[in-house]
Amino acid sequence: MRGHIRRRKRKLDEEATEYERRYKRSSAFDSDPPSLKVRPLLPIKSKSGVLIQQFREEDVATDEEKDIEDEEPVKSTSENADVPIPMNIQQIKSEIAKICSNVVNDPQNHVKELKKLLAMLWETKPYRTCLIIRKLAMASLTCVFIDIIPGYRIRQLTEEERSVKLSKEVKSLVEFEERLLKHYQNFLSSLEKVVTNDYTKKSKLSKQEQKEMTVLGVKSLCELYEKTTHFNFHQNIAVVLLPIANSNNKVISEMCCTAIRNLFRSDKNGLTSLSTVKVLAKLVREGCASKKGVRPSIVETFLSLHINHVDFESMSKDSKRMTAKEKKKAAEEKKKLSRAQKKYLKRKEQLQSELKETEAIESRETKVKYHTETIQQVFLVYFRILKHKKGQVLHKRLLNTVLQGLSQFAHLINIDFFSDLVLVLQKLVTSGDLNFKQNLYCIFTTFKVLSGQGEALNIDPSEFYKYLYATLTDVVYISVGPLNSRKKDGVVKSNELELVMECLNIMLDKRRKQVTLNRLQAFVKRICAVSMNVHPGSTANSMLTIAAKLLQSNSKTSGLFDPESQVKGIYLPELEDPEHSGSTSTCLWELHALRRHFCPDVQNQSLRILKDSSSL
């Protein structure tokens, strides 16, 4: 039995001898070369059940060899010199992505990591990648803040509230809100420095790189301005961003104006639009006083406002005087009340305010109030530009936009300003300083004002009828070539045809009771004559459609189809006054010529008018 144990032990010793020697040789590091490193591996079990340890020898570079390897890229050619840079950028990208994912997934516990991204905004080393690092950090911070910002406005705690003991959950939430607000404020201040180029002294960027950073900073501010209207510092963003819209850089200006338009379209309450319009009104006022002026795109942003209802009583002067008297009377009556009555009224007001808050819906009165103040600011800007001196360049640049805005919001203008506004527009039309499109906007705005509340006013718009009748032949040049010497802007654009159609509709069809027969027949005759000379068939068809509508509006126009019923006289088409052109002494022979027009739609429309004339 003892011999069997000795033989088995000797056999195991022989099997393990080779591995023990290898282990001893590896442990004796004095005899091994310095470039070899022994790495232990997982043991294996032999057939006899013995665990045998394994090792692997690896080459390890010395410190001198590492230094040589680090210096090799620097000594390499120019083609290989940029090889380490993408690796560094990838590391930075992965680090930024890790921080952003941590903050977005768990903002309350990882909001501290935003400090690292804020530090990257002013990174200066390495020089060749600092611009990319700044851009990545700025874009990432913008997206992160938009994602983690809560849907409410954070209120700073008072000293009394800080002294109160809070639970762990509430305390952690308060700390998170304070840190978030602090980091967000630091980020906005950094964006302001980037946009206003306050960092140029400390920065090592070139002018082109600074421009790229400025564009990205403006883009970040625009994103925050659109999507954080409910959060803190939104008014501060507006104060910084809106003046940049008047920049000479078209890209930056267009970005800011687009952000303003999107905010006007998405604003449901009206308070944000009101604050924005106030800042823009101040910007226009300062621009009118300076030589720099204002870009038309800034004034065009008002066209994106969705305002349909306003309080005309609060806009009128008489109502303001009455409310002032009522306030004095109410104050006097309030003094006569007893203490119990005063407490009752105060408690009643508090309950009403609490009920409005529990409804979680903005009352219609508040919305109308904001819209009323907003439209007052818009009209203040428009009237200031209209009163500007005609000889200056600012008046000509902004007048087209102002007239377009007045035509869009004409139904919201207070009746107290109707007479003055019509006189101003009439002077602009008769002065001859405006182009064809601007005159059309003046005409359309005037008749839109007179078609609503202005119907009660005694205003004679005959000058506008004369101008449109005299210039109606200019429609021929919409697609043929330049306008005549009366116009200064060259070619008429396609949207001017739509303006002409709208003016004819609102002047002759909607005001058919105020239009005389001579004026109506003169316009119908002129429209048919223009239809013969316009080149596109669609334009001629649209003109004939309006003529057919006007003929159906008054049965007395049948004299244009019956030569025997015509009044004796001579038709004078060259006169600019439709009342004295002798339109009752002519007939619509143009319709018979249009029956052979090259466009089938025009042929059918002219035949339809001739058939319908028998029923007049």
Low-confidence stretches: 22-35, 61-87, 479-494
Mean pLDDT over the residues: 78
Q: What distance lies between the first and last C-alpha atoms, to the nearest angstrom?
A: 138 Å
* Portion in strands: under 5%
* Spatial order of the strands forming the largest sheet: 1-2
Q: Which shape, going by the Cα principal axes?
A: elongated
Biggest β-sheet description:
2 strands, antiparallel
Give a written overview of the molecule.
The protein is mainly α and 616 residues long. It has five domains: 2-69, no CATH class; 88-157 and 166-266; 267-413, no CATH class; 416-511, no CATH class; 516-616, no CATH class. It is 63% helix and 3% strand. It is built from 27 helices and two strands. Strands 1-2 form a two-stranded antiparallel ribbon. Strand 1 and strand 2 form a beta hairpin. Helix 24 packs antiparallel against helix 25 (537-553) and helix 25 (537-553) runs parallel beside helix 27. The longest helix is centred in the N-terminal third of the chain and has 28 residues, at 168-195. The protein is elongated, with a radius of gyration of 40 Å. The protein starts with a helix and ends with a helix. 26% of the residues are buried.
